[in-house]
Every structure is written in structure tokens, then in C-alpha cells.
């Protein structure tokens, strides 16, 4: 079941044709109509779904409201997730909820749509070096970095004819791993995309990636799957507030309990970000849901 867009976005059609090429029966569900998506997954016994991590979060929440148990009512074995950064803690949550193995994929609209994916060992997408040559550059100096160092991904497509792209900056922050994989493949792998060089937030001189915030929040048991990062400027100072949705079982009418939880979340964020960030707690279901790429950052600063 492909729950990516089928318009100008390359994800839907790219995965569609790829799945057909390996002999899979494809359900071109596209995006939206979440209730129908879940009903189709049940009725047609889909064994795999391809979508964004944020939409899978929405599907899981909606299934819970509909009384659907993923492990009991679904035949799902694989979740193929990409098009936006997501963390290992999110993978653990998804796999625990759905009972399916969650696979990270990588692709670009400019180059060829969906291109590379993880193997069963889930140690990062395998690159096809005969199709694409990848380098990691220091975003500030442009220096080529050695394997294992994180930086900005730069790609040269070796098979593109009409519009060759040479050393094209993807703006994705990752690293290249050239060590052999347990699966036996010797092709390099890229590590999980932790953010983009152009979505890095500079708050009072400190570099902050949204993926750092997500990693911290997802480690806190009481925190739900939804959050929003609001950045503004008050006078000459940057101000960042993080809105965090709390799980139903953790939400309390007692002000003291909520104050203690908020203080704990703020303490954890300061520990990982090296900056004090105020947190605003939200009730379950209060923050917006996304069917496509999640918009987690609202930056209203004018420079």
C-alpha cells in the first residue's frame, strides 16, 4: 500500500513502479482519507506500507481510535518510511505498535525519486555506487570528509543523461559507512539523515537541529508522538518554545503533576541541546496532524 503522493512528488510513482518490478501487487492509496487507508489495509491484507514517518504516526493514532489492533487485525510485515528525518526511537515505537519491521529509504526528487533502502539488518540505506557517487562535505568549508564523519551529502548521478547533476548538494546531513554489512553486501551505506543544512536553527548562537529535539522527546515515556517548535524574536533575542503533546495516560488534571512533567522535559532538552528551552504541554489530540511531510518548525523571525 503506497501512501505517498502521486502528483509531482516522485515518491508515489517511484515506489509504485519499483514494487511492480519485483512482482508485488500495488495498492495506489496515495495520501489522505486515513480511515479508508486503514480499512483497505485490513480488507486487502496488505503486508507492506510506504509512507512518511509522520503519516504512520497519524495512522497509528487513528487505528487506536477505531479500535484496530495492528498485530491482531493487520498482516503488515514492513513499513517503508522516508521523505523526512526520523529517529531510532521513533522506529522502536513504530515496530512495537505495528509488529512490522520499519525500513529507512532514501531518494531525491532531482535525481531519481526513491533510490536506496536498508537491508534486513537496518544499519542504513545501501548505496548503489554504479548509479550514484556520493561525497560528504563540511557544510561550512566545502572540504571532503572521511567516511564516518557527518556532513552535507553531495551526489553525482552516473546514469542521468538529459540533465546530469555533478556534485549536487542535497542539503541532507549524514555520513558514509564503508564497512561491510552483515547482509554480505559490500556497497557503502549512508547513516540516518539527522537533518538538513538549511533547516538547522541557530538560537542565540547555538546550532539546533529539529532531529535533536525529537530524539530527546521520544526518550521520555510520557511524551506522545506530536510536537511543534515555535521560533520567534523578542527584541534582539531569539526565543524558542516547544509545544509537546502528552500521552492520554500521562495527562493529569493536577497542576502540580503537569508542572513536574514540564520541568522534567525542559531539563532533558537542556541536557542535550545545551540551551534552556521553555516547554508548553498540550492535551492529547490538540496539536495538528499531517498526512504528508510534517511541518514541525514555525520560524517567524525576520533577519
Compact overview of the structure:
The protein has 303 residues and is of the alpha/beta class. The protein has helices at 10-21, 34-43, 53-65, 70-73, 88-98, 210-218, 255-273, and strands spanning 48-51, 78-81, 101-108, 113-117, 132-137, 151-157, 168-174, 176-177, 189-190, 195-196, 201-203, 206-208, 223-234, 237-246, 279-282, 297-299.
Classify the beta-strand content into a percent band. Answer: 25-35%
| Total count of strands | 16
Please give the share of residues in helix: 25-40%
How many domains make up the coordinates? 3
Which class of the largest domain in CATH terms?
Alpha Beta
**Gross CATH architecture of the largest domain:** 3-Layer(aba) Sandwich
Strand order of the largest sheet: 1-2-3-4
The mean pLDDT is 90
Radius of gyration from the CA trace? 20 Å
Largest sheet: 4 strands, mixed
The third-level CATH topology of the largest domain is Rossmann fold
The string of secondary-structure elements, in order, is HHEHHEHEEEEEEEEEEHEEHEE
N-to-C terminal Cα separation, in Å?
A: 43 Å
The global form is: globular
Q: Structural class given helices, strands, pairing? A: alpha/beta
Catalogue the unreliable spans: none
Please identify which CATH superfamily of the largest domain we are dealing with: ANL, N-terminal domain
- Helical stretch tally: 7
Amino acid at each position: 500500500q503506497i501512501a505517498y503522493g502521486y502528483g509531482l512528488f516522485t515518491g508515489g510513482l517511484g515506489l509504485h513502479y519499483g514494487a511492480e518490478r519485483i512482482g508485488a501487487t500495488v495498492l495506489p492509496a496515495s495520501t489522505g482519507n486515513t480511515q479508508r487507508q486503514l480499512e483497505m489495509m485490513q480488507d486487502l491484507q496488505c503486508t507492506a506500507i510506504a509512507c512518511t514517518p509522520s503519516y504512520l504516526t497519524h495512522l497509528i493514532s487513528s487505528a487506536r481510535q477505531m479500535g484496530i489492533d495492528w498485530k491482531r487485525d493487520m498482516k503488515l510485515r514492513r513499513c517503508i518510511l522516508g521523505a523526512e528525518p526520523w529517529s531510532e526511537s521513533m522506529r522502536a515505537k513504530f515496530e512495537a505498535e505495528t509488529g512490522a519491521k520499519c525500513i529507512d529509504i532514501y531518494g531525491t526528487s532531482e535525481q531519481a525519486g526513491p533510490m536506496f533502502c536498508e537491508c534486513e539488518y537496518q544499519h542504513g540505506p545501501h548505496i548503489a555506487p554504479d548509479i550514484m557517487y556520493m561525497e560528504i562535505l563540511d557544510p561550512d568549508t566545502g572540504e571532503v570528509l572521511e567516511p564516518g564523519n557527518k556532513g552535507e551529502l553531495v551526489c553525482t548521478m552516473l546514469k542521468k543523461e538529459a540533465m546530469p547533476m555533478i556534485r549536487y548538494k542535497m542539503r541532507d546531513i549524514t555520513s558514509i559507512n564503508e564497512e561491510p554489512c552483515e547482509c554480505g553486501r559490500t556497497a557503502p551505506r549512508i547513516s540516518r539523515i539527522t537533518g538538513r543544512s538549511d533547516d538547522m536553527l541557530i538560537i542565540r548562537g547555538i546550532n539546533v537541529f529539529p532531529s535533536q529535539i525529537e530524539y530527546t522527546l521520544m526518550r521520555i515515556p510520557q511524551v506522545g508522538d506530536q510536537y511543534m517548535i515555535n521560533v520567534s524574536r523578542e527584541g534582539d533575542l531569539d526565543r524558542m518554545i516547544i509545544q509537546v503533546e502528552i500521552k492520554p495516560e500521562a495527562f493529569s488534571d493536577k497542576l502540580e503533576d503537569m508542572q513536574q512533567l514540564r520541568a522534567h522535559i525542559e531539563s532533558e532538552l537542556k541536557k542535550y541541546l545545551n540551551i534552556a528551552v521553555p516547554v508548553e504541554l498540550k492535551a492529547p489530540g490538540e496539536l495538528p496532524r499531517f498526512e504528508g511531510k510534517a511541518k514541525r518548525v514555525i520560524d517567524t523571525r525576520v533577519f
